[in-house]
Amino acid sequence: MARLTVDGDALRQPQQTQFELAGWIDTAPFEDLVGLKIEEAAEGKAVLTLPFRVKLAMGGGFMHGGAITTLADTAVAMAIKALLPPGTIFATTELTTRFLAPVKQGLVTATAMVRGPEGRTFYGEAKITDESGGEAALFTSIFRIARGQGFDD
User: Fold this and answer.
1) Which residues does 115 contact at the CB level (< 8 Å), separation at least 6?
2) Coil vs helix vs strand at 79
3) Are strands 9-12 and 90-99 parallel, antiparallel or unpaired?
4) Is the bond preceding 117 in cis, omega lying within 30 degrees of 0?
């Protein structure tokens, strides 16, 4: 198996099985690295937060759009996980982020909700707000459950 080292962490090619995590709703290694926190996840809804940090900023001093999109995408994923049996494998297949205002500081919140499944498909939305409650971005996505897990096509 190919092996790379970055900042002392060994990176391996993805395995065929899902990562073993402390709990089904817990974050994955990437989300933990970024600093996401799951505030709540139940019944197809989730709220996640991410503190503004310089390491998540772009050159102009605002939070990077990729960090905001990561927050929103993960919030939708946690809302989906709250509806599925533990261990179900699924992935984002389409996403759109519409940026409304820059984030300059403080805690950023993503409030997500999903509908589905419709066959193997979930449709998700998230609203991203800054610390003062102002809308920073709107996010929409489509997720698909991997085949062979008991969901209709």
Assistant:
1) 44, 122, 123
2) helix
3) unpaired
4) yes
Would you list the domain boundaries of the chain?
36-145
- Structural element, H or E, at residue 70: helix 65-81
Query: What is the pTM for the complete model shown?
Result: 0.83
Query: What six digits make up the tokens of 47?
Result: 């709220």
Consecutive sets of 10 residues in the chain, 153 residues long: mean pLDDT of each?
42 42 62 89 95 93 97 96 91 98 97 96 98 97 96 77
User: How many whole angstroms separate alpha carbon 75 and alpha carbon 114?
Assistant: 10
Please name the helix (run of DSSP H) or strand (run of DSSP E) that holds residue 61, with its range, or none: none
**Residue in this structure with the two tokens 């989906």, named with its chain if needed:** 80
Q: Say whether domain 36-145 belongs to CATH 3.30.1050.10.
A: no
64 φ/ψ angles, rounded to the nearest 5 degrees? -65, 140
Spatial CB neighbours of 74, under 8 Å, sequence gap ≥ 6: 27, 31, 36, 48, 110
